[in-house]
Write a structure and sequence with these properties.
Blueprint: H1 2-17, E1 20-21, H2 22-27, H3 32-40, E2 44-48, E3 51-54, H4 63-70, H5 78-83, E4 89-90, H6 92-98, E5 109-113, E6 124-128, E7 136-139, E8 142-145, H7 147-156, H8 161-172, H9 178-187, H10 192-197, H11 199-204
Parallel strand pairs: 5-6
Antiparallel strand pairs: 1-3, 2-3, 4-5, 7-8
Helix pairs in contact: 6-7, 7-8, 7-9
Length: 208
């Protein structure tokens, strides 16, 4: 009976979360052994250490990214984190790619967090920054920085100015909030060094 209840629970978790973690499975009384058995049986696919998806379900380009984000707080479901914002968001070049801004790659993945997060994963990097909830949008179940915040982060991350301007023009054609962008640029231009980093956007906005 436990075997069949595990299959049912895994199916329910997959339907709810898509990509799910070992810790989320544990909350539904699904053991690591049950997950390993489902992988061997071909019912589950292991995306990375501690994260899975159901075999036969539609794969998304963001599955690995989704796994990495969920593993930053592995026991909580996406709806719980959406209900109570924890400040961890997809940002920078990854956010730009997801929103078709400029010519940036999806990976290496970039995320922002309010506290330092260290990782040995070469395909993932974190930066410590405060991101307001008003500056994120949920895409494919992921909190992604909105275009205005993404542009500012591209500057702070020292990305190529020409690529930043390309991203700016792409966002401009899709309803970029100019006033919010100006506010964010001003907030991040308090020092001479920061102002220099913001120069591509200051020029584009006619504020330099």
């Amino acid at each position: 009976m436990k075997y069949f209840s595990n299959i049912t629970a895994i199916s329910e978790l997959s339907e709810s979360e898509g990509v799910f973690t070992t810790a989320q499975a544990a909350r539904m009384d699904i053991s690591r052994d049950a997950l390993a058995h489902s992988c061997r049986a071909g019912r589950l696919e292991r995306i990375c250490h501690g994260a899975y998806r159901m075999s036969g379900t539609q794969r998304r380009d963001t599955d690995e990214l989704n796994a990495f984000w969920k593993l930053t707080n592995p026991s909580l479901c996406a709806w719980e984190r959406k209900r109570q914002w924890d400040g961890i968001a997809v940002s920078g070049t990854t956010a730009a790619n997801l929103q078709q801004m400029g010519d940036f790659y999806l990976s290496p993945y970039r995320m922002t967090a309010p506290a330092r997060i260290n990782t040995r994963n070469e395909s993932l990097s974190f930066v410590k920054r405060e991101i307001a909830e008003r500056d994120i949008v949920w895409l494919d179940g992921l909190p992604v920085t909105k275009p205005e915040r993404t542009l500012v982060d591209l500057c702070l991350d020292c990305e190529d100015p020409s690529l930043i301007i390309d991203a700016y023009h792409d966002a401009l054609g899709r309803g970029l909030d100019i006033q919010r962008l100006k506010d964010l640029v001003e907030e991040n231009s308090k020092t001479a060094k920061r102002r220099e980093l913001m120069r591509p956007l200051l020029i584009a906005l006619g504020c330099d």
